[in-house]
């Protein structure tokens, strides 16, 4: 994707003042080199074809966006990361000097703006019943990336300072919230260096969205998708086809599982009360990754990835609702193991990603999750999640076909099979037909289903107090969408910006309607319409990382 360089004259000064005001003066220090001068730099490791960078653009709905489900914030969009990373790998000539890289400030970002209604002029809502559904009915978000890149001639190293701000819906023009409230999060704030002392070695420290390849149509990262404050290291072998990476970071969500504040008498018999963190524990997450690409033919290949995580939490004590009674929370831990196989053509972003991921114990609840139904010993021991995900793209001439889907099984640590235990899955296909290089039409079809644990039936009015045995609950829906689009950047499933008109029709079964609270219109409608205007954009910031 193109990069936007903030350079030269009044335009540079105005843009620089704007981003400095938004993101802080710390990034706007004097450059280490002359602005606009191409400076030589050692060749930096580039992703193998078919691989998105560890912090590939995207967001939150990041939906998250978002979150996400887990990535709350308008989950990200990483089409450009896939597109750029799947270019044919060039044959390297050791006698040819590396291409120069620019030093300076770079601005980029991704986003989505959505204006939608249902069939009765009510708000357009996300109608998915599974954890990650179609991205066509996700909400508005804006992600802004500001990066400062420098090549240090004295050491031969290249550094990058990266800051990412994300703003999620609702926006002022929709709800007129006053004062001008904004739903903003800081998604990246880290510094990365490459080739300092050891060629091919990169190190980073800070707060980072740390992830790999994504499932484009479902807008999430099935294998590695972490949000932590910490650091990491990566080493690329000289062949540029193999690398090893490790990371360690911490987080502490604001939930009673991690933090409880209480009022206590202050020190030295002073009057009043003081706030004390009675429970204050954070989670340590470490991850490990190995990736290798085997070339096939002139441009294609197969990438394989092995991945793992370790989660650890200390013990703690918190007060219960009963005055004067405390409970002990034991030390807890968890793990993730996973693998990925990704054949790719090297032409027109053709690829197939296959992901397998198993999470056990504490890690089964995600990096921010809290076990609501622990094992008898108070830990998350025995909880597990197994997920298989597929994502693919194929383009030939005016035709393109994207597909994605997953099956997921989750069980919590409690022994009874209950409502939180579920099996679910989704399959989405989206064919594109380009009537011209600048536009065409797409259709999207999906099927979603889930099966939950035992659900108690309502009481029998004829026999108050009597209840039948609990039973499983199954739900499903089908969706069909018609999406005319305009592509100013030309033909290609991943080209952005893209303007869309979206019409989605959803049919729920009775089980799907039962998943919503009483009086929610989704609990009453078998058929649902989503009609709206949508635009997505993606401008990559630093071109060398």
From the N-terminal CA to the C-terminal CA, the straight-line distance is 13 Å
Oligomer: single chain
Q: Kindly state the percentage of residues in helix.
A: under 10%
Largest sheet: 18 strands, antiparallel, barrel
In percent, how much strand structure appears in the residues? over 45%
Characterize the overall form. globular
- The Rg value, from CA coordinates, equals 25 Å
Low-confidence stretches: 1-16, 18-100
Mean pLDDT, to the nearest integer, reads 82
Q: Please count the helical segments.
A: 4
Topology summary:
Layout: E1 4-5, H1 9-23, E2 38-39, H2 79-85, E3 101-102, E4 104-117, E5 141-152, E6 157-168, H3 172-175, E7 183-194, E8 201-211, E9 225-236, E10 242-251, E11 259-264, E12 274-280, E13 283-296, E14 300-313, E15 316-319, E16 326-329, E17 332-344, E18 351-361, E19 384-396, E20 399-411, E21 422-436, E22 439-455, E23 471-487, E24 498-508, H4 510-513, E25 527-539
How would you sum up this structure, described in words?
By secondary structure, the chain is mainly beta. 6% of the residues lie in helices and 48% in strands. The chain contains four helices and 25 strands. It has an 18-stranded antiparallel β-barrel. Strands 2-3 form a two-stranded antiparallel ribbon. A two-stranded antiparallel sheet has the order 11-12.
